[in-house]
C-alpha cells in the first residue's frame, strides 16, 4: 500500500473523505501519503473541529503546507468557535475573523460551500471576493441575517445549486428572496421553520415561494417544512407545487391539507422524474394521485402511517396499494397502511410479487378496536405473505403492534427465510424483548438469518 502512486492514493482518499479517522491515519504513513491526504482534509476542515483539530498557530517559520489554499468551504459558526478559544474579547474576535476572511479570499482558489449562520462580516467587500463567490455551489443560512448580506451576495453568487434555509424569524427576509431570484441553476432547495412563536408579524413565506416558483425549470429537490401559515399561504404553496415538473425529490413536512381543487391540479400535473415522495399528514389519495400521474421512477414513498388520515376510508388504502404495483416498478423503500382484510392482504401480496426492487418495508394497519387474537392472526397472515411473495431484495422490515407473531410462527418464518439475505426487523411491540423471544431471535442471528431485530418504544422511531 505504501508504494501506491499519487493518482491512486488520491482516488482512495477521495472515498475516505467522510471517514476522518482513517484519513487522519493516512497522514502518518509517509510524506507522499501526507501530501495527498492534506488537500482532501482541508477542503472542508470545519467538519473535523469536534475532534479537536485546530488551525495552526502563527509561526516565525513557514508551514509545510499552505492550508487555506486547499480550503473550499466556510462554516462561520465553527470558525467563530475556534477563534473564541484563542481570545475572550469580542473586539479581538471580530478582527481575527476579519483577518481570516481576508486571507481566505486571497488564498482560496474557489469557494464551493458557505454556511453563513451568525455571520458578522460582509465578505463580498473583501478583495478578490467576486472571483471566489462566483463559484459558490451550496449556501446554508438562517433568516435572522440582515437582507443586506443577501443583496450583496446576489451580485456575485448566481450559480448556487443547493440552498438550505432555517427560518427563525417571523418577519419576511426580502434579501433571501432576491438571492433566489438571481439564481441560474438552482437544483436543491430546503426551507425549515424553526420558530418558537406562532405569531407572525408578516407573512415570511410569500416572497420566498414566488421567487422559488421561477426556478421550476431547474429545481429537482424540494423540502418544505412550514409550521404557521394561513389558508392563503397554503393555497399559494399548493398552486406553486404543481409547477415543479422536474422534481426528483418532494418532501412536505407540515399540515398541508390538499383541497379538492388542489387534488385536481395534482391529477393534471405530472411529476415524471419524481424518485422520492414524502408528504406528511395527508390522505393516501394524495400519494395515489401523484403516483398514477408520475413517470414510473419512484424509488421511495415515505410517510408516517400512524399520522395518515385514513381511519374511516379503507378504499383509499386499496387504491394506494394498486397504484404502487401498477405504477412503481422501481420502488425500493415503502411505507404502507391497510386494513387487515382478505382483500387488503391479497392486494399487498400482489404488490410484493410485482415490486421486485423492494428493499425496505414499513407496514401498519388501521383499526379502532382489535383483539389480541386478531393481532396474532394478522401476524400469522403477514408472515405467510412475506415468505411466499417477498422479493429477494427485501432486507429490512418494520411493523406496528397491530401485528404480533407467536413463537411458533416466528420460528417457522425464520426457517423459511434461510436462503434469503439476512433480514433486519424493527418493531414497536415490546413482547419481543421477552426472554423466550430474545432466545429465539439470538439463535437465528447467530446463523445469519436475522441481521438485527430491534424494539423501539416510540412510534416515530419506526418511521423512515
Structural description of this entry:
This protein has 464 residues and is α/β, with parallel strands linked by helices. It has a domain of 41 residues. Helix content is 39%, strand content 14%. The chain is built from 17 helices and 14 strands. Strands 1-2-3-4-5-6-7-8-9-10-11-12-13-14 form a 14-stranded parallel sheet. The longest helix has 18 residues. The mean pLDDT is 85. It comes from Rhizophagus irregularis (strain DAOM 197198w) (Glomus intraradices). This is F-box domain-containing protein. InterPro entries: LRR_dom_sf (IPR032675).
Q: What labels describe this entry?
A:
464 residues, alpha/beta, 14-stranded parallel beta sheet, 17 helices, 14 strands, 39% helix, globular, LRR_dom_sf, F-box domain-containing protein
Which bin fits the share of residues in helices? 25-40%
Instruction: Kindly provide the radius of gyration, computed on alpha-carbon positions and rounded to a whole number of angstroms.
Output: 27 Å
Terminal CA distance = 39 Å
Global geometry: globular
| Percent of residues in beta strands | 5-15%
Q: How many helices?
A: 17
InterPro entries: LRR_dom_sf
Protein name: F-box domain-containing protein
Amino acid at each position: 500500500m505504501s508504494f501506491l502512486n499519487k493518482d491512486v492514493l488520491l482516488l482512495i482518499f477521495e472515498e475516505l473523505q467522510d471517514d476522518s479517522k482513517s484519513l487522519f491515519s493516512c497522514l502518518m504513513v509517509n510524506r507522499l501519503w501526507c501530501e495527498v491526504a492534506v488537500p482532501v482534509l482541508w477542503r472542508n476542515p470545519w467538519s473535523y473541529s469536534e475532534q479537536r483539530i485546530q488551525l495552526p498557530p502563527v509561526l516565525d517559520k513557514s508551514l509545510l503546507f499552505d492550508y487555506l489554499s486547499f480550503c473550499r468551504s466556510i462554516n462561520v459558526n465553527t470558525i467563530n468557535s475556534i477563534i473564541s478559544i484563542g481570545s475572550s474579547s469580542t473586539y479581538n474576535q471580530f478582527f481575527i475573523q476579519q483577518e481570516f476572511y481576508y486571507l481566505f479570499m486571497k488564498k482560496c482558489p474557489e469557494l464551493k460551500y458557505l454556511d453563513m449562520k451568525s455571520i458578522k462580516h460582509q465578505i463580498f467587500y473583501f478583495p478578490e471576493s467576486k472571483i471566489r463567490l462566483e463559484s459558490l455551489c451550496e449556501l446554508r443560512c438562517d433568516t435572522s441575517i440582515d437582507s443586506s448580506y443577501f443583496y450583496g451576495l446576489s451580485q456575485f453568487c448566481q450559480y448556487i445549486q443547493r440552498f438550505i434555509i432555517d427560518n427563525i424569524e417571523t418577519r419576511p427576509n426580502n434579501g433571501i428572496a432576491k438571492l433566489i431570484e438571481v439564481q441560474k441553476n438552482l437544483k436543491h432547495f430546503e426551507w425549515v421553520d424553526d420558530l418558537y412563536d406562532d405569531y407572525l408579524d408578516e407573512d415570511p413565506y410569500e416572497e420566498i415561494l414566488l421567487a422559488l416558483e421561477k426556478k421550476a425549470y431547474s429545481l429537482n429537490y424540494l423540502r418544505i417544512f412550514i409550521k404557521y401559515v394561513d389558508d392563503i399561504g397554503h393555497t399559494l404553496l399548493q398552486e406553486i407545487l404543481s409547477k415543479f415538473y422536474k422534481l426528483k425529490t418532494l418532501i412536505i413536512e407540515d399540515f398541508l391539507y390538499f383541497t379538492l381543487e388542489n387534488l385536481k391540479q395534482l391529477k393534471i400535473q405530472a411529476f415524471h422524474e419524481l424518485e422520492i415522495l414524502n408528504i406528511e399528514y395527508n390522505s393516501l389519495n394524495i400519494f395515489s394521485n401523484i403516483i398514477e400521474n408520475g413517470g414510473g421512477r419512484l424509488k421511495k414513498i415515505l410517510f408516517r402511517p400512524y399520522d395518515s388520515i385514513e381511519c374511516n376510508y379503507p378504499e383509499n388504502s386499496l387504491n394506494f396499494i394498486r397504484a404502487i404495483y401498477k405504477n412503481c416498478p422501481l420502488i425500493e423503500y415503502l411505507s404502507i397502511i391497510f386494513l387487515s382484510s382478505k382483500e387488503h392482504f391479497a392486494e399487498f401480496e400482489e404488490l410484493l410479487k410485482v415490486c421486485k426492487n423492494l428493499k425496505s418495508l414499513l407496514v401498519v394497519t388501521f383499526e379502532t378496536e382489535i383483539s389480541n387474537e386478531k393481532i396474532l392472526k394478522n401476524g400469522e397472515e403477514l408472515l405467510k405473505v412475506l415468505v411466499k411473495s417477498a422479493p429477494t431484495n427485501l432486507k429490512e422490515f418494520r411493523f406496528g403492534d397491530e401485528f404480533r407473531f407467536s413463537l411458533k410462527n416466528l420460528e417457522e418464518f425464520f426457517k423459511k427465510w434461510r436462503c434469503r439475505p439476512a433480514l433486519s426487523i424493527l418493531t414497536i411491540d415490546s413482547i419481543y424483548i421477552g426472554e423466550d423471544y430474545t432466545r429465539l431471535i439470538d439463535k437465528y442471528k447467530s446463523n445469519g438469518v436475522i441481521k438485527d431485530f430491534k424494539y423501539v418504544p416510540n412510534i416515530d422511531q419506526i418511521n423512515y
